[in-house]
Amino acid sequence: MLSVFYDVLPHKLINGSLFYAFEHYVKLSEFTDTNLYLYKCSDTDLQTVIEIFKDKYNVKYNSEKLSDNIYNNIYNINSIRELYKIKTDKSLFLDGRSFNNIYQFINSDVVVYNSHVNLKKFKSKIKDIKWFGYYDYQDFDIKEKLQLNFSIFKDIKPKKTDTAFFSSSLADSSELFKFAENIKESKVLSKVSRTHTTNLFEEIDTLYYVHINLDVNNRMIPEAFYYKKNIEIIQPKEMKPDSILHRYNDIKENGLQEYTLTKDSLIIQEMLRDIKNT
């Protein structure tokens, strides 16, 4: 049994780390029994998140186990006692904050993608910890890009639209409309905390990303490339290279192959190592 953990932010329920956790959970579930645990998540928020997953993804495989149980193996837990009771062979964290808040209460070896700028890798006396990362501001042992499970992305029906979507690493993008004065689209959308825009990439033709502070593992850029949307990066001030500029330039030059989660991905291989029923 494998487990994927994510520490929910109540004020920012919907964010990239949540989707990374779900996508890796689904990929692992193709090969062995896996659960997804959402820590500090209410029953109401759990149902909201599951409905968003169903809206965003199309999880259909020839595996009866996957198609029938993928949403039944997502659990909310709300206490340290519940964490201690979880029986798992190995645990995966796709962001440093979730790892930092949960790992000491998990009775298994750990694989972590260290997205946290200030989290320094360390060794544990009681469990093995494998540290993944990619960028200079991440501390890690194994270098790999954080990947997306495009195999479960829903197909879209592109519309003839004149709509732009504004995004940034800020929790709420409402203040970003000051950058929208000179754009060509007649309608502008923006992310709002705790909300999910249904069929976002069907509704827009251009993604504008306002690069205003460090974005550790951005996924809007790869998603926009996947759905063949126009991408414009607005940079009001000089920024150190981060996942925004690297991913935009890298994918534009080399495509999405290295950003695509597969069984051969190093994180998946590490999670499946020594697991008997794969």
Structure description:
- The chain has 278 residues and is of the alpha/beta class.
- It folds into 2 domains: 2-149 and 261-272, Rossmann fold, CATH 3.40.50; 155-259.
- The chain is built from 9 helices and 11 strands.
- The protein has helices at 16-29, 43-56, 64-69, 80-85, 96-102, 200-203, 220-226, 243-254, 266-272, and strands at 2-7, 34-39, 74-77, 90-93, 109-113, 129-133, 142-143, 163-167, 187-190, 206-210, 230-234.
- The strands form 2 sheets. Strands 3-2-1-4-5-6-7 form a 7-stranded parallel sheet. A 4-stranded parallel sheet has the order 9-8-10-11, with helices on one face.
- The radius of gyration is 19 Å and the shape is globular.
Which strand-content bin applies to the residues? 15-25%
Q: Give the CATH level 1 class of the largest domain.
A: Alpha Beta
Report the biggest beta sheet as strand number plus sense, adding barrel if it closes.
7 strands, parallel
User: What is the SS-derived class?
Assistant: alpha/beta
Count of helical regions: 9
Number of separate domains: 2
Q: Distance between the terminal alpha carbons, to the nearest Å?
A: 10 Å
Shape verdict: globular
What is the tally of beta strands?
11
Let me know the average pLDDT.
88
The name of the CATH architecture of the largest domain is 3-Layer(aba) Sandwich
Helix/strand order, N-terminal first: EHEHHEHEHEEEEEHEHEHH
**Low-confidence regions:** none
Question: How much helicity do the residues have?
Answer: 25-40%
Fold-level CATH name of the largest domain? Rossmann fold
